[in-house]
Write a structure and sequence with these properties.
alpha/beta, Rossmann fold, binds adenosine-5'-triphosphate, binds magnesium ion
């Protein structure tokens, strides 16, 4: 069991985790998001960009490879959101002006970034998204290795944190931060459900999990 694994029970929780990470980012940071199609990487990025103040649309860079988001007023002036799913070879990255992204106030957040391991520099945080619950519509996705529960809802995801460089010493801290916000978001969702008179008998308990939690 990895010490750096958090469970998310909903897209809102995953977005809330992204929202916590956004303000933690510094120029030069690279966040690599790995994990299966539909596991929640883009949901996470959307939460991250919203937390930094981006109000416009957040479009998938699946075909453009990279989308840029500019921010005024802080040391972090740009987030580059990448998605390398359609990258055929790592060599394709040469000539895309990636070097420019490592200058100045930019942090990179790269879906499927693991395919280009080695090009991301020294300060890399890697978040791996796994399915935890079995989705009847997609049983092939199965469950995450090691920490899975067949009773978990189909919307359950596991996010595993790893990092090098300046992130190496921050894994535990970020793990705690992201896990806490996932729980808080779950509680807020439950409160909202209660306020709206929903039948909360079955979901009175926060729908967030930490691997190995009792
Ligand atoms: N706990 C959860 N966290 C995130 N998304 C969830 C969760 N439960 C269900 N979902 C749904 O799963 C989908 C995740 O889609 P998303 O685009 O973020 O995946 P992705 O990992 O970026 O996939 P791709 O590799 O195709 O880019 C969304 O439709 C979202 O509503
Ligand atoms: Mg995506």
């Amino acid at each position: 069991m990895s010490p750096g694994s958090i469970w998310s029970a909903s897209p809102e929780q995953t977005a809330a985790m992204g929202a916590v990470l956004g303000p933690e980012l510094r120029p030069g940071d690279v966040v690599v998001l790995d994990g299966d199609v539909g596991a929640g990487k883009s949901v996470f990025v959307r939460g991250l960009l919203r937390a930094l103040g981006w109000r416009g649309p957040v479009l998938s860079p699946t075909f453009t490879l990279f989308n840029e988001y500019e921010f005024a007023g802080g040391p972090l002036s740009r987030i580059v959101h990448g998605d390398l799913y359609r990258l055929d070879t790592v060599a394709e990255l040469n000539g895309l002006g990636l070097d420019e992204y490592f200058d100045g106030g930019t942090a990179l957040v790269i879906e499927w970034g693991g395919v280009a391991e080695g090009v991301w520099g020294d300060d890399v945080l890697t978040l791996t998204f796994d399915y935890v619950g079995v989705d009847a519509a997609h049983p092939e996705r199965g469950v995450a290795e090691g920490g899975a529960s067949r009773t978990a809802p189909a919307t359950a995801r596991q996010v595993t944190i790893d990092g090098v460089g300046r992130f190496l010493g921050r894994i535990a801290e970020l793990d705690t931060l992201l896990a806490r916000v996932a729980v808080e978001e779950a509680e807020a969702q439950n409160d909202a459900a209660t306020e709206h008179g929903a039948d909360t008998q079955d979901d009175g308990e926060a729908q967030s999990y930490r691997e190995g939690a009792p």
